[in-house]
Specification:
Elements: E1 39-48, E2 56-58, H1 65-75, E3 79-81, E4 97-101, E5 119-124, E6 127-132, H2 135-150, E7 155-162, E8 168-174, H3 182-194, E9 199-205, H4 228-240, E10 244-251, H5 256-261, E11 266-268, E12 274-279, H6 284-297, E13 305-309, H7 321-324, H8 335-351, E14 356-360, E15 377-380, H9 391-396, E16 401-403, E17 410-412, H10 424-430, E18 452-460, H11 469-488, H12 497-507
Parallel strand pairs: 2-3, 2-4, 4-6, 8-9, 8-18, 9-10, 10-13, 13-14, 14-15, 15-16, 16-18, 17-18
Antiparallel strand pairs: 1-7, 5-6, 11-12
Helix pairs in contact: 1-2, 3-4, 6-8, 10-11
GO molecular function: hydrolase activity
Protein name: Glycoside hydrolase family 20 protein
Keywords: Glycosidase, Hydrolase, Signal
Length: about 500
């Protein structure tokens, strides 16, 4: 996970008073940036502003070149090559911004796990330098600089040393229940990148729809869907903004779109009643279907993660699963055992493509003869399910947990089932990565960044027509800003909520 470099490997050559008028007052320690930087040491009274001669520079062929060209385009200033090796466009001058990658693992970090996302930004003598060990860190340094310029204050002279508290930070988007356009999704990716959020989880298969073009099973695809060309464009933009796209094909529940095309896979109880969205895991054809889709889609998503789903399988929410679903019972076993083996088998297919898997917390069911794979990450969303297990149980067992607490982080369209739209203010004031269930945190010793890996804000579209795309974008803007703050910057935020909201209106 990202850590501020030990020693001086991260000496970001500083932002200093460029072409703007020097600020005679002492530089503030709180910068107009969301999320807040971890450490800023003012040095002098100057302020960096863009000037007529400003260039954004990086070494020729270096991993920082893409980040520098992106920033130059956004600032509408020229790009130039750094002259550190004598092959550039001359020495840096007043108003110039230089990006350098000079740490271990440089240029190898897109879509990786445990990426060093740190950077050092220095403002000095009318120039800015951003040093980072990886292209991801350099990118985040450019986001900090961009926000100080957007805020209109410029970048005060001094040195920023910054890195995220949690390695996983992002947004879940339910495109299965509500189709979102490619343009809208790409706008959210740009927003995520600017907020230093690094994951976009696409829930693209559910009872209401299957929303990405499929060549292995075109019969299951909904009318409104993303083409594979759309998907490639989304993934390419996400890589540019250091956002990993996490695919989810939820099983063995939430497969209604598949079942409509293949009714023979429908789970039926002993009374002949069909259970919505539930696939019959006793049938070999059910496994073949999900594995076909995994084999098709896993190579299309270059990121590390694959989400198995695993939640709300209807065979497990009755009082006596073995009597209700005798066809699912393995010899001498239970329905819970069969379900755990099912998910382990689906995971085995994903692992052949080098994926690290995730599943919802109610999909983790240990039995005497079957245990969920030890490497699978727990996506903790609820404590309301039948037989609910506290998050402490997963953490003390040594499992890695990601926070999607439905009390704070679930934006459910139409507000069904007692959900209310979460607010940025409530997240900002009350929620932390340690608050995994309800409103109470787990013990600090269990909530360290190597155990609670981060969190994601989730947009679920249960009542798809309750809001338009534009309304969703407006509704999640402040919550996303608040989530970004709480996942990057540990501890109490330095700004009051009114001040943070005002800043988000400017830069977020």
């Amino acid at each position: 996970m990202g850590k501020i470099w030990a020693g001086l490997a991260l000496s970001l050559a500083a932002l200093t008073p460029a072409v703007g008028t020097p600020n005679e007052a002492p530089a503030p320690r709180t910068l107009p940036v969301i999320p807040s930087v971890r450490d800023f040491q003012p040095a002098g009274s100057g302020v960096f502003h863009l000037g007529p001669g400003t260039r954004v520079r990086a070494g020729r062929g270096s991993a920082a070149e893409d980040e520098a060209r992106l920033l130059a385009g956004q600032l509408q200033v020229p790009f130039g090559f750094d002259d550190a090796k004598g092959d550039g466009d001359g020495p840096a001058g007043t108003g110039d911004i230089t990006l350098r990658i000079d740490g271990p693992g440089a240029g190898t970090t897109k879509n990786a796990a445990d990426v060093n996302e740190s950077y050092v930004l220095t403002a000095r003598n009318g120039q800015v330098t951003i040093d980072a060990p990886t292209d991801a860190g350099a990118f985040y340094g450019t986001r900090t600089l961009l926000q100080t310029l957007r805020a209109g204050t410029g970048m005060p002279e001094g040195v920023i040393k910054d890195a995220p508290d949690r390695p996983q930070r992002g947004l879940l988007l339910d495109i299965a229940r509500k189709p979102f356009t490619r343009d809208w999704i790409e706008d959210r990716i740009r927003q995520l990148g600017d907020l230093k959020l690094n994951q976009l989880h696409l829930h693209f298969s559910d009872d209401q729809g299957f929303r990405i073009e499929s060549s292995s099973h075109p019969e299951i695809v909904s009318r409104d869907h993303l083409s594979k060309a759309d998907l490639r464009a989304i993934i390419d933009l996400a890589a540019q903004r250091h956002v990993t796209v996490i695919p989810e094909i939820d099983s063995p529940g939430h497969l209604g779109a598949v079942i409509r095309a293949h009714p023979d896979l429908q789970l039926v109880n002993a009374s002949g009643r069909a259970l919505p969205g539930a696939i019959d895991i006793s049938k070999a054809a059910s496994a073949r279907m999900v594995d076909d889709l995994t084999r098709e889609f896993a190579p299309l998503f270059p990121g590390l993660y694959w989400h198995l789903g695993g939640d709300e399988y209807q065979a497990l929410v009755v009082s006596d699963p073995e009597t209700s679903y005798p066809q699912l019972v393995p010899p001498g076993g239970t329905v819970a055992e069969a379900t755990t083996r099912w998910l382990n088998d689906r995971e085995a297919v994903a692992k052949k493509f080098g994926k690290r898997t995730k599943a919802w917390n109610d999909g983790f069911i240990s039995t005497p003869r079957a245990v969920p794979d030890r490497d699978r990450e727990v996506e903790y969303w609820t404590g309301k399910e039948l037989g609910a297990r506290d998050p402490e149980e997963y953490l003390t067992a040594g499992r890695k947990v990601v926070n999607l607490n439905d009390e704070y982080l679930y934006y459910v369209l139409g507000e069904p089932n007692d959900f209310t739209y979460p607010t940025g203010e409530r997240i900002y004031k009350e929620w932390t990565p340690a608050v995994l269930r309800g409103t109470s945190p787990v013990a600090a010793s269990l909530a360290t960044p190597d155990r609670v890996l981060g969190g994601r804000f989730a947009v679920w579209c249960d009542l798809a027509d309750a809001q338009s795309q534009d309304e969703v974008a407006r509704g999640i803007r402040l919550p996303l800003n608040a989530v970004a703050q709480k996942l990057w910057y540990p501890g109490t935020p330095p700004l009051s909520w009114p001040a943070f909201k005002a800043l988000a209106d400017k830069v977020g």
